[in-house]
Predict the 3D structure of the following.
Amino acid sequence: MLVSKTSAQDHFCEEWPSTGRSIELNQPETIAEALTWALLNRTELHNQRRKSWENARTLLNWESESELLIELVQKMTSEQPPT
């Protein structure tokens, strides 16, 4: 996975480093470097794809993330407003 270099995408790649690489969209050489790396490192690329698929299947999906959202909403709605 190639992601544009934004704070959210960088944070995601830092938290899940096996999922992809960050590129600068306005610096074509970073895109070329990432594509060259993918071409020359097929085994590692395949391993990253497999790990990304496993993360998507088990952790980074709506079923898992919705539980966190529901917990947060329940916590927020159960708190007493300040008086």
